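Structure first, sequence second, as always.
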């Protein structure tokens, strides 16, 4: 029998019980990883709808679960839609991880823990040969490549994923519920391998605030531009959108340009280029493409390529900058197709040789991979592409890349329409890197 005071206590709770137990808004969701750029580290980001502490408990896979713990912080993100929906974005950086070791982790707080996930800390050796999946333009609706990417990632086929802009369609829609759903959808990939991003035009609403708040890339630019190293590659992520959304601050365009110049200068110091000879860029809108829409890249004087002269001062483009510093490979998306170019500079082809165009190419190699799948479907091609267009496909799919060693990079295109068939592949081989490689 209940003591009298307990019965009174229950009675006094009755009105609350009648109203119902409040739902749990402290449950972690939308878990994803990114690499902070420091060997032996990994950053875990997730969302809760009520404020909680930010903890990750982890341990070497196969060892004692959760024998290590790290804490971080949460920032309140208020979406700018009508409902002004609030969410807490939690960030915890794990440090001192053993390179190439696998870890199991969960994240959350004593108010709720996520499922258990696992990842492999990136191997920090410059002779490591990292494997990437890359694509842009993946949405909630019609995400054709997603199932294949989920399975291949979980099978351990990739060390890193590069998402080259345009997410969810769009992160801010339905008061950012589409963003929530997209982040839940990619958790099946992004909670297992670092998911590295750059912004695309679909992130522009409310000054890219959903993008800037939801992702956690290295550096101090709220994920807009940054660089990091892996194996023998220096990888630069940039915002092509600074050339188009001048209303969010023309100074961003110039700031990024100056940063790019400094970063490329640093990467080109002989002692740096000797250990990380490959410089690879990723940005959303390409300099060249042969799609049949009126996008920037379909014009000779693309903003991204040549800059703009309607700003004060005129804004420099990126083609000369990248050429001058010997960028080897440029990854783009935005066009909902796949296109591989012969080595190109100034609208002209510079094959290594006619027989082996990618053997010591005399200009950067461009790949456009924006066909992962989204509600906008696939784009049409111009029937008369220019001479720099080497291979084109309108199949849904994505690209695999392996930076094998200091001289060899391998790329291949997977068709989801053709059940995972590899429909294109190249080896880019360079015995020499840097500007002098062009001469
Ligand atoms: C918890 O989150 C829900 C959903 O966002 C919100 O309605 C509620 O006011 C929050 N409660 C507290 C105490 O913050
Ligand atoms: C990292 O990669 C290099 C090159 O493949 C390999 O020799 C080394 O054993 C790897 N490190 C670990 C800890 O597995
Ligand atoms: C847009 O966001 C960027 C990055 O945070 C910021 O520097 C800029 O001032 C913002 N622009 C406007 C108009 O708020
Ligand atoms: C400015 O750029 C446009 C193309 O973007 C070009 O047609 C025009 O000639 C340029 N004007 C000047 C003054 O350079
Ligand atoms: C570049 O190489 C490819 C492949 O051999 C060839 O089809 C193309 O015509 C070459 N382009 C030029 C401009 O030499
Ligand atoms: C790089 O890898 C390629 C392809 O596996 C191989 O043929 C080549 O000998 C390697 N080069 C070096 C410098 O290890
Ligand atoms: Fe786009």
């Amino acid at each position: 029998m209940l003591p009298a005071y307990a019965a009174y206590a229950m009675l006094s709770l009755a009105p609350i019980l009648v109203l119902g137990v409040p739902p749990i808004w402290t449950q972690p969701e939308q878990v994803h990883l990114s690499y902070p750029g420091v060997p032996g580290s990994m950053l875990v980001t997730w969302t809760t709808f009520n404020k909680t502490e930010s903890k990750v408990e982890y341990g070497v896979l196969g060892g004692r679960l959760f024998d290590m713990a790290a804490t971080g912080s949460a920032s309140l993100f208020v979406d700018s839609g009508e409902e002004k929906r609030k969410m807490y974005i939690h960030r915890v950086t794990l440090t001192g991880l053993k390179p190439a070791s696998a870890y199991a982790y969960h994240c959350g707080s004593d108010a709720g823990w996520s499922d258990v996930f696992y990842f492999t800390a990136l191997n920090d050796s410059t002779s490591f040969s990292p494997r990437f999946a890359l694509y842009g333009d993946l949405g909630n609706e019609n995400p054709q490549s997603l199932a294949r990417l989920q399975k291949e990632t979980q099978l351990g086929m990739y060390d890193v994923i590069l998402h080259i802009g345009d997410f969810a369609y769009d992160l801010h829609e339905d008061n950012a519920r589409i963003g929530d759903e997209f982040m839940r959808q990619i958790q099946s990939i992004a909670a297992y391998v670092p998911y590295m991003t750059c912004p695309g035009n679909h992130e522009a609403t409310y000054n890219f605030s959903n993008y800037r708040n939801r992702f956690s890339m290295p550096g101090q630019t709220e994920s807009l531009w940054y660089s990091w190293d892996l194996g023998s590659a220096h990888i630069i992520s940039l915002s092509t959108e600074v050339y188009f959304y001048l209303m969010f601050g023309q100074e961003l365009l110039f700031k990024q340009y100056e940063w790019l110049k400094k970063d490329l200068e640093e990467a080109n110091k002989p002692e740096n280029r000797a250990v990380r000879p490959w410089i690879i860029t990723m940005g959303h809108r390409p300099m060249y493409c042969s799609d049949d829409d009126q996008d920037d890249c379909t014009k000779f004087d693309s903003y991204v390529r040549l800059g703009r002269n309607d700003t004060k001062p005129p804004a420099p483009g990126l083609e000369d900058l990248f050429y001058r510093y010997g960028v080897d490979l440029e990854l783009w998306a935005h066009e909902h197709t796949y296109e591989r170019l012969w080595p190109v500079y100034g609208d002209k082809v510079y094959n290594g040789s006619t027989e082996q165009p990618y053997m010591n190419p005399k200009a950067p190699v461009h790949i456009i991979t924006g066909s992962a799948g989204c509600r906008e479907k696939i784009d049409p091609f111009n029937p008369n592409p220019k001479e720099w267009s080497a291979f084109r496909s309108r199949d849904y799919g994505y690209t695999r890349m392996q930076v094998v060693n200091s001289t060899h990079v391998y790329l291949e295109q997977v068709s989801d329409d053709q059940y995972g068939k590899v429909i294109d592949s190249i080896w880019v081989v360079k015995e020499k890197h840097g500007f002098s490689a062009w001469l």
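Margin note: The longest strand covers residues 86-94.
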